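Sequence in, structure out. Go.
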Amino acid sequence: MDKRLIINADDFGWDTFATEGILDLAKRNAISSTTVLATHVTARDIKELIALGNISVGFHLNLIDGDPVSRHSHVKSLLDKDGKFLSAQNIYRKFLLNKLSKTEIKTEILNQIHRLKKMGVEISHADSHRHIHQYPVLGDFILKVLNEAGIKKIRKLNTNRFSDKRRMILKAMSLYPHRQIKKFISPQVLLSDFSADKKADMEVFSKSLTSAFEKYQTAEMMTHPGTMDRPGSYLKRKEEYEFLKSCEWKSFMKKNSVKLISFKELH
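Output:
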């Protein structure tokens, strides 16, 4: 049985530390894919990433943090009084109460995609900030927009862990019968162990892969590397960065016949 792993670095463009860390890992062939925040990334950073050419570059949809790409007047229902995105909780509540404009959601998604393409990104796949593309009901609409925009591959929230409250919520969202998800190609399972265990080391990595490949052939490991941690965040960005950078995990992959692939190679 073929065993294939995608190591995806989320949040390219979020801040200097995430961007620097992901670029360095890409140069070392220590990741196979990354997803870019169109709302945060600079043209200079995108240019450097594209020039490497050795990883797939995807779209990290963001509707809940910071500033929109669109003119504020075009996406008013998504914003607070300061012109910032509403929180995930408020966005979701407004959508369920039919107080969020679907036209404005679509406008912002398409403008984020357009910004990446304008900067030269050939979008290989998509995921989203806080997994908003798989929120029940709202996710169906977002997936429909992504499909119509030509996105063919996507992260699917079939997470392998539900050992804490956050992971249990993700698992519950993955069980919702999204009608649109079948239109996309996705890895069979999402490995979120680095976030769940709040550490990144060889023990967590090896256990994660061993468990996943007992059942599945293709897995995506979700990572959030950075050269520095972000204040107030539970993510151990620096620890993830240092572990991936060490490349000690490559010997485990070779010994267990696990092939590192990118989203571009996923069929």
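Check: The first strand starts at residue 3 and ends at 12. The chain is about 40% helix and 15% strand.
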